[in-house]
Structures are given as structure tokens and as C-alpha cells.
């Protein structure tokens, strides 16, 4: 089953300790995973928690891998396997310390995702140019999906093939089919400036157990007929070996 991007929401602010996304709906899709990117620009603020539906089911998200920092530009992904379905939900991120810079949160819901290790292949990049980009986020896999976050000093625009989840100025998140190889997550800025980018691969759900399901199961593994021939249910005799 391929991963499917279902919906997304985000929010932007500057110098706050709590930031809530816009409301969104989580349905009853199979093999759901909620992936949340957080980007912020500060030297003295620490990202503490990311929570889904804090006023309701209050489900905590798990931080994936490590936070990426390029100077004061910081990014990290969080996820929740099989979040509780419901309408008018939000994701809330909280910080501690002195809030002095811009912040953004981007939440994306995927179905058909792996239910044990949904995120893989964290990839980072940073620079000072007009083209933030990530080289291949792991090997291209037809059934996977990709998500990235970018924070730049100037406004960004996503390249063709990417669907933006949320964008405000130079802080943005996008998703893209995971079968694409090469420079697969790319943005264009206005004037060149400092930027940092973080991407992950959303892995497809594990395939079910293989094998042909028989309409019957023998109670014994060696049924013998009156002459010692192996018998199948219903009195059938298997063909002899050639």
C-alpha cells in the first residue's frame, strides 16, 4: 500500500512560547501517521513539546532523530503513529527560554505509513544562496513519501512537484512523492541569504504476510487411505510423482 498525503495545516508567529496550527480533520484512514515539522530562528529558545489535540485526547508526539541547527536556524520533525480520528483538531508546540525569533509549525497527515518506523533517512543541508535544496533523502521508493521543512532569511517558493503544507515568508513545509531521485526537495528564495533545510522519508506500511490462504486446513498432516496412500480432505488422492 502506498503512502498517501491526506491533509495538512500550519501556523506562523514570532516570539511566542506556544504556537497552535490551524484546525484540521483526521479521518479513519488505515495506517495513519501524523508528521509535524517545527522551524524557528532563535539563539535562546528551546523546543520542549509537540502535542496533538491538547484540549481533547492530548496525544504527545515523538521527536525524530536530532534537531538540526545552522546558526540560529533550527529544525526538527516529530511524529505520532495512529493519531485518534476527529474533526477540528490542532497541533501545539511549546518552547521555553527567551522567545526572540520567528517560528512555524507544519502538520501533515499520511495514510498507508509504516506503523513501527514511519520516518527514516533524515537529511539536512544549509547554506547562503538563492536555492535551498536537499539531495536524495534515501533511495527512491515508489510507495514512500517525503516531507521537508525550510527556514530562510528571505521568502521562499517551492519548486514544481512539491506540494506545500504551510508557508509564511521564509518558513515553509512541503511534501512530495518518494519515487523521485536527485535534488528532490528544492526551493527558490528572493535575494540570496542564509537558510537551513531538513527532510525525512515517510515509509510505506509493511506488506502483509505472504502465502496462499487455503479454504480448508487439514486436521492431520498425514492422512492415510486404506492402502496407505496419502489422502486429501474429501477423499481426493494427490497425483503420483513422475
Structure description:
A hairpin with a 2-residue loop joins strand 16 and strand 17. The chain has no helices and 19 strands. The chain is mainly β and 242 residues long. The protein has strands at residues 4-14, 18-20, 24-26, 33-41, 45-52, 59-60, 62-70, 73-81, 86-89, 91-97, 102-111, 119-129, 133-134, 145-152, 156-158, 163-168, 171-177, 185-189, 193-202. Strands 1-11-4-8-7 form a 5-stranded antiparallel sheet, with no helix packed on it. It is globular. Mean pLDDT is 87; it is low at 209-237.
Cα distance, first to last residue?
A: 41 Å
What are the secondary-structure elements, in order, as H or E? EEEEEEEEEEEEEEEEEEE
The major pleated sheet works out as: 5 strands, antiparallel
Strand content: over 45%
Instruction: Return residue spans where pLDDT drops below 50 for at least 5 consecutive residues.
Output: 209-237
Average pLDDT reading: 87
Contiguous helical run count: 0
The amount of helix comes to under 10%
The overall number of domains is: 1
Radius of gyration: 24 Å
Please count the beta strands (DSSP E, at least 2 residues each): 19
Strand order of the largest sheet: 1-11-4-8-7
The secondary structure category is mainly beta
What best-fitting shape do the alpha-carbon axes yield?
A: globular
Amino acid at each position: 500500500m502506498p503512502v498517501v498525503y491526506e491533509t495538512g495545516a500550519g501556523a506562523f508567529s514570532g516570539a511566542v512560547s506556544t504556537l497552535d496550527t490551524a484546525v484540521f480533520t483526521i479521518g479513519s484512514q488505515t495506517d495513519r501517521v501524523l508528521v509535524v515539522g517545527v522551524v524557528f530562528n532563535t539563539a535562546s529558545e528551546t523546543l520542549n513539546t509537540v502535542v496533538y489535540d491538547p484540549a481533547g485526547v492530548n496525544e504527545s508526539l515523538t521527536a525524530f532523530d536530532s534537531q538540526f541547527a545552522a546558526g540560529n536556524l533550527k529544525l526538527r520533525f516529530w511524529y505520532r503513529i495512529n493519531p485518534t480520528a476527529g474533526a477540528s483538531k490542532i497541533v501545539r508546540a511549546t518552547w521555553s527560554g527567551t522567545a526572540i525569533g520567528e517560528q512555524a509549525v507544519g502538520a501533515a497527515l499520511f495514510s498507508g505509513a509504516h506503523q513501527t518506523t514511519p520516518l527514516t533517512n533524515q537529511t539536512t543541508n544549509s547554506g547562503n544562496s538563492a536555492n535551498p535544496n536537499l539531495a536524495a533523502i534515501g533511495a527512491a521508493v515508489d510507495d514512500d513519501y517525503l516531507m521537508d521543512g525550510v527556514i530562510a532569511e528571505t521568502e521562499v517558493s517551492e519548486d514544481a512537484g512539491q506540494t506545500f503544507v504551510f508557508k509564511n515568508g521564509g518558513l515553509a513545509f512541503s511534501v512530495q512523492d518518494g519515487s523521485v531521485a536527485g535534488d528532490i526537495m528544492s526551493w527558490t528564495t528572493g535575494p540570496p541569504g542564509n537558510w537551513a533545510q531538513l527532510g525525512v522519508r515517510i515509509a510505506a506500511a509493511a506488506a502483509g504476510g505472504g502465502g496462499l490462504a487455503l479454504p480448508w486446513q487439514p486436521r492431520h498432516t498425514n492422512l492415510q487411505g486404506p492402502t496407505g496412500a496419502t489422502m486429501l480432505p474429501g477423499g481426493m488422492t494427490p497425483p503420483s510423482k513422475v
